[in-house]
Amino acid sequence: MNQEAHAGVFQSRAVSIPQTGFRIAKKRDKRIGLLLFENCSFLDIGLVVEIFSLANSVAVAWHEQTAHPYAVSLLSSRGGQIRCTNSITVETESLDATEPASYDVLFIADGEGASAAADDKRTTDWLKRVFQTVKVVQASGNGALLLKGAQLPSARGMIVPIRPAGTRLNAVSENNLQLDINAGSLMLTALSLVKTDFDYETAEGIAEQLMPFSGRWLAPLLGDAPNANIASTMKEAARWIEENCARPITAHDMARSVSMGDRTFLRHFKAEIGMPPSEYLLRVRLDIACRLLITTTLPIDKIARRCGMGNGIRLAKIFKRRLAVSASDYRAFARTEFDNE
């Protein structure tokens, strides 16, 4: 079943999802496998699928990508229809028809059939091959029994193995991806992946769209929002603005410099610095222009380019609006005052 066929499993009130930094490499999709069994929870499966579907929509809308960052496949031991809770059936692909090494993430659903699958050699052999290369595995409920039956590490309450693709099971690096997971929840694992690949605000926005008012209980489970030390982060952003003010920069560029969503960055910057980042940028550029007018004989047009104001006409308008004096009069007056000292 393709990604488009899953869209719209859940309908919720519209919530704006921040348009923020996106970290997945564009070389190929991140392949997500959901291994299902008879009587598994349709709600759990639907939430996971919809989380990645919404993340794909964010990537396409903001980054104008034609390809989705996540490719989701529903799997079962022999393929075909699997009956979930509430007598809902879903179509799945057979494990034999998929390449185990192609998956980046594997979710193992709960369900009565999970314990029986632990005795199914076809399924356990496939899992062992998956574990050689997959980056993240998360099992829910009875799904952990399947991993135990395959003599693989239990994924209950954590993600295992957390390692770069292409390495063996025992080659775990301390610098690998770390996700915030609680009690084997497939939904939290999916949101944590989105948080890692995009940012906290995107994961939070998706959760709010699927489950309104989830922020009150979700934040502790997803972990603290990045850049918890807001004051030092905003000072870092201010320094970045000062160092890059000579070139065209946007509020989105400023937010990305500290790995924040646009709206979150604007809110914190104003609270910590006392003004919007656009105002801070303008003041930095104006200060540089004033110093260059006093200390150099550079033409006004060249000064405008050096401080990021584009041209002399724009610089002149800003001087008139902010200082009620022309740039040339400011230079002449400042030099007269300097000579009289």
UniProtKB/TrEMBL annotation:
Coiled-coil annotated residue ranges, if any: none
Pfam families, alphabetized: HTH_18 (PF12833)
Molecular functions per Gene Ontology: DNA-binding transcription factor activity; sequence-specific DNA binding
Keyword set includes DNA-binding: yes
InterPro entries, alphabetized: AraC_XylS_family_regulators, Class_I_gatase-like, Homeodomain-like_sf, HTH_AraC, HTH_AraC-typ_CS
PROSITE patterns, per database record: HTH_ARAC_FAMILY_1, HTH_ARAC_FAMILY_2
Ranges for domain HTH araC/xylS-type: 235-333
Keywords, ordered alphabetically: DNA-binding, Plasmid, Transcription, Transcription regulation
Keyword Cell membrane (UniProt): no
Name recorded for this polypeptide: AraC family transcriptional regulator
Lineage: Bacteria, Pseudomonadati, Pseudomonadota, Betaproteobacteria, Burkholderiales
